[in-house]
Automatic annotation (TrEMBL):
Protein name in the entry: cysteine-S-conjugate beta-lyase
Gene Ontology molecular functions: cysteine-S-conjugate beta-lyase activity; pyridoxal phosphate binding; transaminase activity
Pfam family, one: Aminotran_1_2
Taxonomic source organism: Neobittarella massiliensis (ex Bilen et al. 2018)
Cofactor requirement: pyridoxal 5'-phosphate
C-alpha cells in the first residue's frame, strides 16, 4: 500500500469526542472506542499538506467560496459516482444533520408527516420531532441471512395512509450497511413522486462502498429523481474531516435551492463555509482517490476480521455489510435486555459502542460497532469481547 493505515498518533488529549469523550459517555473502564462514526486514520497527506500551506499564510479572515472547490465537487461526483451536477446546484451546510433539519423545516409544516426507514441514523428522529413534525417509521425487513431490504408495498402504503410529505433516505444505509440497488431506488422514487413526497437523501457514506457494490446517488437515477431529491453529502466521513464542518447540499430544483439559500442567509446568517474546510475538501477530492481505494480495502479486511471473531460466538450474528465502516451486530441471542447488554459491553468487554435501540424499536438487541480503526486495536477489542463472551455464555 502507498499509504499507512496501521498507525495513528494518540488522540487522547486532543479534545477528541471519540477518545477523550469516551469515559464521560461510557465509563472510565472502557478501553476500546468503537462508537461515534469517526475513523482512527490520518487523513490523506495531500490534505494535510494543503492545510499546512494555507495555515502558513497566517491570515484567516472572512473568505468567499472558491470556484475551484465547487469544481472539485462536480468532478468527484462525476468520476466516482457518474452523477452529473452543476456548480450552481451546490450549497454549503456546516453538517449533514443541519442540512436535514433545514430540509424538514423548509419543506414541511408543523404536524406534517416525515418518513424514515428504521433502524436508521438517530439524528433523523430529532430533526423531525424537534421541529414539531410527526415521525413515521417504515421498518426495513430482515431475512434469515440478516440481509435488510425495503418492503416496497409497505413503503407505498405507509406513505399513502399517513399523507407523508418528506422521505429521508439514508444511502448507503447507516446502520445496516446496505447499498440500495437501482431497482429499489427507482421504485421508491416512483412512489414518492406519485404521492408528492420530497426525497431528502443523506449520502455521506457514498464513497465507502465494498467491492462488488456500486453506490447510485438517488438523484442520478432518473430525471424525476433529479427533480424531486435534495442530496446531502460530504467528504468528512470519507477522509476523516468531520471537525472541519463542511457538508454539501446538491439541489437541482431552483425554487427549493433559492428557498434554502434565503433561509441560510436571512434566518441563520450563514453566508459560507469554514476556510480550512474548503481547502481540505478540495484537496481530498482532487488527490484522495488512491487513498480512498486503499482505505476501502482496509475496512473490508477489518470486516472480515470481525466476522471471523463473531463466528466464534454462535449467539451473535453480523449483518452482511456492503458499505460504510459501521458494522451492525445482532446480539439478541445473548438473552440480555438492552440495559444488561449495554452493561456487558462497557463493564465486561470494556468496549464503547452504540446500542441499536437508539436507531428505532427494531434495533433492540443490536449493536453498532465502528471498525474504522487500526487492525491491532480492533483485534484487541474483539479479543476482549470473545473473552467476556466465553466467560459469561459458554
Amino acid at each position: 500500500m502507498q499509504y499507512d493505515f496501521n498507525s495513528c498518533p494518540s488522540r487522547y488529549g486532543t479534545n477528541s469526542t471519540k477518545w477523550d469523550g469516551m469515559a464521560g459517555g461510557f465509563g472510565a473502564e472502557c478501553k476500546y472506542p468503537l462508537w461515534i462514526a469517526d475513523m482512527d486514520f490520518v487523513s490523506p497527506p495531500e490534505v494535510v499538506k494543503a492545510l499546512q500551506e494555507r495555515v502558513a499564510h497566517g491570515v484567516f479572515g472572512y473568505s468567499i467560496t472558491p470556484d475551484s472547490y465547487l469544481e472539485a465537487i462536480v468532478e468527484w461526483e462525476k468520476t466516482r459516482h457518474n452523477f452529473a451536477i452543476e456548480k450552481d446546484w451546490i450549497l454549503f451546510s456546516p453538517g449533514v444533520v443541519p442540512g436535514v433539519y433545514w430540509s424538514v423545516n423548509l419543506f414541511t409544516q408543523p404536524g406534517d408527516k416525515v418518513m424514515v426507514l428504521t433502524p436508521v441514523y438517530n439524528p433523523f428522529f430529532a430533526a423531525i420531532k424537534n421541529q414539531g413534525r410527526t415521525l413515521v417509521e417504515c421498518p426495513l425487513q430482515r431475512d434469515e441471512r440478516g440481509h435488510y431490504g425495503v418492503d416496497l408495498d409497505l413503503f407505498a402504503r405507509t406513505i399513502r395512509e399517513n399523507d407523508v410529505k418528506v422521505f429521508i433516505l439514508c444511502s448507503p444505509h447507516n446502520p445496516v450497511g446496505r447499498v440500495w440497488t437501482k431497482a429499489e431506488i427507482d421504485r421508491m422514487v416512483d412512489i414518492c413522486v406519485e404521492n408528492g413526497v420530497l426525497i431528502v437523501s443523506d449520502e455521506i457514506h457514498q464513497d465507502i462502498v465494498f467491492e462488488g457494490y456500486e453506490h447510485l446517488p438517488t438523484a442520478s437515477t432518473s430525471q424525476k429523481a433529479l427533480e424531486n431529491t435534495i442530496t446531502i453529502t460530504a467528504a468528512t466521513k470519507t477522509f476523516n474531516l468531520a471537525g472541519l464542518q463542511n457538508s454539501i447540499l446538491i439541489v437541482p430544483d431552483k425554487v427549493r435551492r433559492e428557498k434554502i439559500q434565503k433561509y441560510a442567509s436571512e434566518q441563520l446568517d450563514i453566508m459560507g463555509g469554514n476556510l480550512l474546510g474548503y481547502v481540505a475538501v478540495e484537496a481530498a477530492y482532487r488527490h484522495g482517490g488512491q487513498w480512498l481505494d486503499e482505505l476501502i480495502a482496509v475496512i473490508e479486511q477489518n470486516y472480515r476480521l470481525l466476522c471471523d471473531y463473531i463466528a466464534k460466538m454462535p449467539k451473535l450474528n453480523v449483518t452482511p455489510m456492503e458499505a460504510t465502516y459501521l458494522a451492525w451486530v445482532d446480539m439478541n441471542g445473548l438473552g440480555l435486555d438492552d440495559d444488561e447488554l449495554d452493561a456487558f459491553l462497557k463493564k465486561e468487554c470494556l468496549i464503547a459502542a452504540n446500542m441499536g435501540r437508539v436507531y428505532g424499536p427494531n434495533g433492540k438487541g443490536f449493536v453498532r460497532f465502528n471498525i474504522g480503526c487500526q487492525r491491532d486495536m480492533l483485534t484487541e477489542a474483539l479479543e476482549s469481547l470473545l473473552a467476556a463472551y466465553n466467560k459469561r455464555f459458554t
